[in-house]
Sequence to fold (676 residues):
Amino acid sequence: MVLIDFFSAVGDVLSSESTYINGALFAALLAFAATGEWVAERSGTLNISVEGMLLSGAFAGALGYHLAESVAVGLVLGAIGGLIIAVVQAEMSHRLTADQFVVGLTLNILVVGLTGFLDREIDPRADYASEVEIPILVDIPLFGQALFGEPWPFYLLYGLVPLSWWLVYRTRWGLELRAAGENPQSADVSGIDVNRRRRQSIYYAGLTSGLGGAYFLFARLATFDDSVIGGQGFIAIAAVIFGGWTLWGTMGGCVLFAGALSFQLSLQGLGYELNTELLQALPYLVTIGAMAIFARRVRPPAALAQPFIRGLK
Amino acid sequence: MTRGARAAEWVVLYALSIVVALAISSVIVEATGGDWWPVLEALVDGSIKAPGRWGETLGVAAPLLLVALGTVISAKAGLINIGQEGQLLMGAAFAVYFSFRIGGPGPLNVVLLLLFGALGGAVWASAAGLLRYWRGVPEVLSTLLLVFVALQAVGYGLKWQWLLLADEASRGNRNLVSEQLAKNNRIPRPDIFGNEFPITVYVALALALAVAYVLARTVWGFRLRMLGHNPRAAQRSGVSSTVYGATALAIGGAFAGLAGAAMFAGGGFSFGNYRLVPGFSDNIGWTGLLVALMARERALPAVVAAFVFAMLRTGAGFVNSTGVESRITDVVQGLLVLALLVPPAVVFLRDRRRARAAATERV
Fold:
């Protein structure tokens, strides 16, 4: 009897629009961050400061709204907030040749401290972004509301993701960037400034992650707290790995991980307690499993996480 | 440049970058209406000057050093292990499981508990080793992802009495805690000049010497370094990258696990007060990784770096009393780490530029 109840609850959750709306909300946060992270990883940087970039973007977004009472200003400031972290990360690790993990881990700690500190001192107030419904499409059952009835910053994704794909696969810049990630020595010999491309790709990650943090603030929270991102940046990294360093695979990872989270939250709302630890660990376990199974076919950029210093191998 | 001038240059560079980092912190504090000097004084008081504090700092430095030593070993084999936080937590969980579900009382138990902790860390790191050498998954990714799996796994263990959770009588009104380690099972903390710290501090120092010696002076250490410098040459001369690499990863994990067990059995109030609690690892694994990387993956400089990082942690505890929001210490810590990265990079880049200029002149 209990089992039947449980399955009917699962059915309820799967057929309720709010599950998909919540899922789209989390997926969008992951997608903003993972798109940039994907670009950075294709150029050879395992950019673990993405967590800090998201948080910095969220805080800067709140600050922007606090100052100008405008979501658009908040989003712009959010992107700049992410960019500031990116500049520190890129300059330290790809100009000064400091270790990228030291810089990334330090920045994550620094941003939690700094935003927490400034939040107490300034206490910026934000608000929800207004929702925009796209006519006709929004009436699609189940998915319509989730994909076409969202707070307006959500729709930036529809431009950002194809743009990122085009930049990386269809421009000279993207080709050079991928060369820097696959074989920096050869790239260097053919006249590409490897570390410059890597820095630029980190800037890009900072912009998208900052935007993502600000989006999350305006779509879900409306008030800033230093725990709002709570490890989503690391899930975004897992999504890039899960996607096998392709953009569409990465987006698939974002949807899958966000879907699992939303599914769990909805079930909790109905009073069913799933094994939360397992569900929280799921993105990482699935990613590890996918890598273990497809490791021979799905290959990271060959120079991922390896610094490039000309003349040193 | 003479040796003396070079040393002087290092001192000046480091002093300069530290001053800059502190200046930026002071600007942040003053700009938000706080007072900077009391914060700085509190940092120094909390880490060294106030009674009993340098012992506290040593007690924090010991696990940091242990984690860093493990990182040095795996880094020397050319492996990037960034999962110390999870390995440490697993070590602590293994030690807890052993203490309350298997072991008995007595000093032998303390040793076994530490060994079990090391085993836990080694198992967790070996999962990454297995993935790397069996399935070709880069260890930098698997170790990172396994951190978050470890956090959840230990969280799960703390929900069930047959795993880590204490029985109702000894957990009082708290949820998700293990039993408290009995007095005769703890690592001794002798009192020296009013400072007390666990004797694992000495163990960590001895291990630092041992690691430095083994890496520099033994065949095994030589082979490990060969593997790190040139895997292909190492393979040709009979050093199996699988055997040596997997061993190096496992040992690295064992050190982190040992640190976790030592924190549990001798950490006192700094770390859970002889209990495993949620958030037990408290960033010690991440910070230990930073220590190793700051020390440029060398065992003896890691001793100094571990103490510096421990000072920042213990000093932070005193900042609250100054009326400035204590989160500022995270900022100060982060800025200091970034500042400490600059001098070696500047010197390295300049030396290279000079060497290249000299080389072009010769041609």
